[in-house]
Amino acid sequence: MRSTITCKECVDLLMDYVDHTLEPGAERSLDEHLASCPPCIHFLKTYRKCTEFSGQLRDQKVQIPLQLENRLKSFLKQEIAQTPVELGPPKKTNPQQSR
After folding, report:
1. Is the pLDDT of residue 72 over 80?
2. What would the 3-class secondary structure string for 50-87 be?
3. pLDDT surpasses 60 at 90
4. What Å distances lie between residue 51 and 22, 48, 76, 87, CA to CA?
5. Which of 24, 26, 62, 98 counts the highest number of beta carbons within 10 A?
6. Is there a contact between 26 and 12 (Cβ–Cβ < 8 Å)?
7. CA distance 99 to 87
8. At 1, is the secondary structure helix, strand, or coil?
């Protein structure tokens, strides 16, 4: 059975999925997608780890210099704007095309 949710939609729904705030039908559809998409499962595990680590940092009240914080925010915004999210199976290349 093919899932009705795309990899991009999966990424868009992850925060609500992890927080258990999705509508039951959307959660079921996302579960179906995750059952058949290893890259999205990997992304979900990574997302959960990142939120866990960021919560630990927040709880430790780690202070970083303001200049470093601003540079990091600027870098991340630039990367997010320039990097498309590509999930799903890797694209196959034809060895004859590289000749």
Report:
1. yes
2. HHHHHHHHHHHCCCCCHHHHHHHHHHHHHHHHHCCCCC
3. no
4. 18, 5, 16, 20
5. 26
6. no
7. 28
8. coil
Structure tokens at 19: 């927080």
Helix (H, G, I), strand (E, B) or coil at 12: helix
Q: What confidence score (pLDDT) does residue 94 get?
A: 54
pLDDT tens per residue across span 21-41: 999 999 999 999 999 999 999
Q: What is the pTM of this model?
A: 0.55
Question: For the chain, what is the total number of helices (H) and then of strands (E)?
Answer: 4, 0
| Domain residue ranges in the chain | 7-84
Residue 51 and residue 18 in contact, taking contact as beta carbons nearer than 8 Å = yes
Instruction: State the chain's mean pLDDT as an integer.
Output: 81
The position carrying tokens 């705030």 is 21
